[in-house]
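Build the 3D complex.
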Amino acid sequence: MPNLNFLRIKLSCLLVLACGTLSLAQVAIKQNKPESTPLRQTIDKAVQESWKKEKIKAEGKCDDSTFLRRVYLDLLGTIPSYDVAKKFLADQDEKKRDKLIERLLNDGQFSTHQTTLWDLTLFGRNPPNQDATRNRTLFKQWLGEKFTKNEPFDLWVRDLILAEQEGSELYYAQFTNKPEDLTESFSRIFLGTQIQCARCHDHPFTELLQKDFYGMTGFFVRLVVMDQGTSGSGEKQLKKFKIGEKNSGEVLFSGNQKELKPGKKGEPIKPKFLSGAPLEEPTLPANYKEPEFKSGTKSMPKPQFSRKEKLAQWATAPSNPFFAKAAVNRIWSQFMGRGIVHPIDNFGTDNKPTLPDLLDNLTEQFIAHQFDTKWLIREIVSSETYQLGSKGENKESLPKHFERARIRPLSAEEILTVMKVAGGDPEQKSEGSTGEYFRRYFGEPTNGLGDFQGSLSEHLFLNNSSNVRAFISRKKGNLADTINLSKEPWEQRIDQMFLSVLTRLPKDSERAKFASYLQSEPKSENLVEEAIWVLMNMSEFRFNH
Amino acid sequence: MNNPSISGVCKKSEHFSRRALLKGSLATGAGTAIPNWGGLFHSQSIASMAQKLGKRCILLWMNGGASQIDTFDMKPGKATAGPFREIQTKLPGYKVCEYLPKIAQQVEKLGIIRSMRTTSPDHPDGIYHMHTCYKQSERMPHPELGAMIAKYLGQTDADLPSFVRMGPTGNAGSGYLGPRYEPFGIERNGNMPYFTSPYLPAANESRRNDLLRFMEAEHKKENPADAYESHRVAKERAWRLLKAKSLFDTTKEWPKHQELYGASDFGRGCFLARKLTEAGVPFVEIGQENYDSHADNFVCHKANMQILDPAWSGLLIDLERTGQLQNTLVVWMGEVGRTPQINNRAGRDHFIRGWTIVLAGGGIKGGVVYGSTDADGRDVATNPVSEGDLFATIYTALGVNPRTKHFVGTRPIWATPEGSKPIKDLLL
Amino acid sequence: MKNTAASKSVNFEKATLLWSFTWDADWVSAVSFIGDKHFAAGNNLGEILVWELPEKPETIGEPLSEKSKPADKSERPLYLSPKPVRQMIGHSNIINRLLCAENRWLISASNDHTVKYWDIEAKPSGMAKHVLNARTIEDINRNKNSGRKPPTPLEAEVQTQAATKTIQGREWIIGASLSQDETTLITGDDAGQVVMYDRKTGAEKKRWQVKDWAFAVAISPDLKQSLVSERYPLVFDSGRHTAVKLWDVATSTVQHDLSKEFKDMQIASAAYSRDGKILALGRGGEGEGKIFLIDPSTGKKIRELSPIHQYGVTDLCFHPDGKHLASTGRDTVVRIWNIEDGKMVKELGKPRGGQFKDWFHALSFSPDGTRIAVADMAGYIHLWEFR
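Done.
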C-alpha cells in the first residue's frame, strides 16, 4: 500500500476532490470491502514486527486484575465493584476477557464515557465564552445519543459541522465572532493539523502557509451564532443557540504578523481545504448587499451557497486524507496512550508515524467499516498489544514502540467516580463544590510537554479535604462499614479492601503489613479508614496502567 | 486611555474573575496545542548554576498600575503634576514624591527604570504580560516569573514551595513548566489556603503516611515509571509543607516588626516574604490593592503609598540587616503606568508609553536612575525598556539565562523574546 | 457660608444664571461669598481670586469661552462678567474650602497644610496680571487641526494681598467649617486630626484624633456636638475604610457611631441646619450621590433625599432662611431642597455629556440668600439669582 504523505498530494488530485468527484486511479485510498483478517491481529503483527526491528523486549500479557481495571476505566471511566472483580478473577472461562469487553461495550456507561471524552476534546477544561459553555447538558445529550446508537463517526462529525441539530450548535458558539479560533480547534481535532503557527506566519516546520490557515477560516467566517435565549440561573444557566450562515463575508489576509503596519488593508482569501485548491463557488451579484444582522435575531434563511455544507462534505469524506487518519489515530491513543502519530493532533513532515503501514491499515479498515467506532474500539482493546503488562524497567509513561502498556493519569471525572465506587457507594451524593475542587486539582496534571506532574494542591486536597474523606469514612453499607462489621479473618477483609479499591489482591507482604496495622489497636474503625485512604492515595490508584 | 466600557470602573465582578483565575487551573484553551514531545531542555546546567548562587526574588506587585508621575517620575510645575510635592532623596538632583519619605532614604539601593515602554494596556493582558514578558493574546501557556524562578532557583527536596504568593497577583500560573511550579497562594498574615489543616491527630497521620510509604516502596519495585515517581514526590512535598507550616505563622514575631514595616496587611506580607526567602524559598510575590485610580487618583495613591512606603523600605532595611539583601532581588512593578493627563474624575487612566519599575537588591546596582520621559511625561525620552528587556535584566541578576529554551509541542519557546537585552547599567 | 442676618424671602422657582465667571487656570475647587457684594474662588493651584459684583448687571453679552457650550440656550449667562479685582496670595496647593465670617474675613483651607485668614478690608500690597482663559487659548492653539479660532484673551489686573494669619497644620486640610455663630472654626486633615479654633483669634481650643483621614467636619449651632466623617481610600470606588461619627466636643468622645448605617460611604459634606435639628450628610466619591437628613441628637435617619446626584455629592449648604438646603456634586447639577418635606424645589445646571460628568466642586449662598455661587471644575464660577 502506498505510503500516504498527504501534504504532497498533487494539486490536481485536490481539485478533483473539490469538485466532488472521485477518480479511483488517482485517489490513493482504496474503498475496499472489510478485510478478512481481524484488525486486532493486524495490530499485533505490526507492533511485534517493530519490536523485532528495534530489538526491543516487550512485556508479557498483563494479569487479569490489571486487565479488568484497565479496560473498565478505558471503556466506562470507572472501576469494577468488589463483586464484579471477585467474580471475574475467579472465572475460569478462557474467553472471559472477550466476553467482558463485549459486556462493557454494550453497557450504557460506555456511551456516556465516550461522550465525556469527546466533550472534553471539543471544549477543553476552560472553553471560551464561559457563559454559554459552562453548562453543556444539551450538547452532551446530543452527542450521547450518537454514541448510544453507535452512529458512524463521519456522520456525527458531519452533523457537528452542519450544526443544525439541537445541542450541536454549542461547539461553534464557543467561538462566537472568532472564526480563527474555530479554525484552529477544528483543524487540530478533526484534521490532525496544528495550524495555529500559520496564523501569524508561514509554518516553520510543515509546508503550511499562512494562506492555508486563512483559507480554512474562509469556511467559518460567514457563520453567525444566534442566541435563542437563556433558561435557569447560576450553575444551571442554560443557553441555546442556532447557527446561521451569511451569503457573503470574506477573510482578509494581511501578511506576516511581525510586518503588520497600522492602516495596512488585507486582501480577501478564498476558502480552501488546507493546502488544496480554492473552493469553487458561484459569484454573488456585484451589487449584493448582505442584510444587516441585528443582534437578537433568532433565525435567518439559509444562504444560496453554503460553505458550511461544502466543508461538511469534504471534511468527512473517506477521500479526505486527513480526516479518517486523524480519527483513527486519536481513537487509538485513547487506549494505547500514545498515538501512532504523536502528538495526536500534529501530523506533519517532521512528525512521522511510528508505524506508518499500520496507520494506513487502520485508516482503510475504519473507512471500510463505515467509520464504526465501536468496532474499532473492540478491535483495539482485544489486541494483545493493548493487553500488555504495565510493569517493567521502562520509565516512560508512553513507550514509543508500545512495548509496555501505557500509564495515564485518571481524569478528574474518573477520579471522582472511582473514589465513590471504591468507597463502596457509587451513587454517593457529593457536596456541591466537590466536582469543582476535583476539576481544579486533578484537571490539568501535565506540564507543557504533556508529562504528568504531581502538584502540591492535589495532595493537600487528598490529605486534608472533607470532600475526599466523605468517600472513605464509615457510612452505613459502604466499604469501611462492611469491613468494620465483617466477622471474617483480617486477611480476607484485607483482600476485600484491595479488590474494592485497587481491583487486585494484595501481595503477601502487603497483606501481612495491613493485617498488623489493622490490629494495632483494639478498635479498628480509625485504622480501617486510614487503610482505605492509603489505598486511594497510592500512585497505583491515580493512574490507569 | 479612559475607556469606561473596559476598565473605567473596575467593577467587583472583574475582581472576582481575576481571583478565580488565580485560584484556578492552567488555562489551556480549546485552541492550544496539547504538546507531548521529548523536547530539548537547556535546564540542567542552568539550574545547578543558579542554585549555587542561592539567589532569591521578591516581587512587590502594585495591582491596578501605580502612577509613575506621582511616585518616581514627578513633573513639578506642569499641568499634569497634581497636588503631590517632591522631596529630596539621597541622590543629588533626584526627587521623589513626598509620600515615599522612607523609600527616599533607601534610594541608594534602588535601580529605577523610568522608561518602561510596554504594549499591553489593560488589566488581564497587562498583568499577564508583566508576569510572563509575553503577550496573553499569543495563547501559549507562558509561565510567570515566579514559576521560572521556582524551577531554576528552587531546591527539589525543599520543605517549602518554591513559588509563594499573597494578595492580588498574576494570572498566568506555571504555564508550560507544569503544576510542579504552580504558585502556592497564602494570605498575607500567613494563613494557609484551603486544605492545609489535617483532620487527623498527628499520630494517626504519621502512622497512616508510613503505611502509604510502605505500599509505595512495594509498588516501586516493579513500577519505576516517572509518572508514579512524580506522584510520590509530590506527596512527600505536600507532607513536608504541612510540617513546615508553622514558618508561615507570623503571629508571635509580627508585633516586633510592625513598626518597621507599618501596621498593614501588605507590610505583614513583606515581613513574611523576608522570612520565607530567609528559609530558602526562592520566589515570593506580594500584591497590593489597589492603584487603579481612574477616579480620585491622588487620594487613592496617597493612601496606598502610606502603606507601601514603610513596607517596602522596611523590607529593604530588614533584608540588609539579615545579610540577605545582596542575594535577594526586590522587584517593584504593576501592570501599567498612569496617564500624565488628569481626567474629569480627578483620576489618571492607564498608560504604557513611559512608566516606572524599580529593582533593588541582589545583582542590582543601586542609586541608578535609568532612562527618562519627556518634560510632561507623555513619552519615553531616553532608553526605552521593553517587557523582555526587563525580564532579561531580572533573570541575569538572578543568574538565570534569559534565553533559556523550552518546547511546547514542537514549538520552541524562550524565557524572554528575541532581542531582549538586559540593562547593563543596572547590573553589578 | 452661613449668615446670621435674616434673609429676604426668596422664590427658588425663578432662577436666572446671571454670570459665568471664566477662570480656567485649573479646576475651580472652592467658592464663598464675602458679604453680598463680593465672592472669592479658589482653585487647584492654590490661587484665590475675589470678584466684586456690580449694583446693576451689564447688558447681555456673548458667552466668553467656547470651552463648554451648553446645549440648552437658557443655560447661557445673562450678563458679561466683571473681572476679578483681588488676588489672595499665599497658598501653594489645592484650596479645599473657602469660608467667610463677619462678611469680612475669608478663611481658606488647603492641601499645602495651612489654614489662612484674609481680610477683605485690608490694603492690597501689590498687583498681578491674569489671563482668565489662558488654558482654553493654549488648548486651541495646540490642536491646530480643530479649526477653532482662539478667543480673545480675557486679561485682568488684580490687586494682591497676603494672608493676615496662617495656621500651620501637618497634612492636607480637607474639611473646614464654621459654627452657626461664626465663633468657632473646625478643621479636619489627612493625619486624622480634628481641630477646633476660636475663629476670631485663631487660637486652638480643642484637638482630637480620628482613626483614618478626616473628611467632612461640621459643628452644631450650640457648639456641643461635631460631625466627623472619615475615609482611607485604598480603592477609589469601593469606599473602604470609612466612618461617620457624632462627637461630644467637651469630652472628645463619640456620641453616636453611624458607620454601620453608612457602610462603605465616604461622606464628603456635612452641614447642620440653623436650628441644629437637622444634620445633612452627602455621600461623595464616585458612588451614588445620596443625601441624608439625620437627627443629630439620636443619629437616626429622618429621610433620604431624591433624586440623588449622579457620582457623588461635593458640597452641601443650608440657605439663610433655615428651611432650604442646596446640594451639588459630580454631575454639574445644583439642587435646592425643602428640608421640611424633603422635596426638591429647584434644579440648576445640567449634567454634561459622557459617561463621567464634570464636577461642581463647591457652592455658597449670598448672605441675603438671593444668590448662589457654584465652583465649576471646567474653569468657571456660575452665579444664579433667585427672585
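Confidence is low (pLDDT under 50) at residues 1-44 of chain B.
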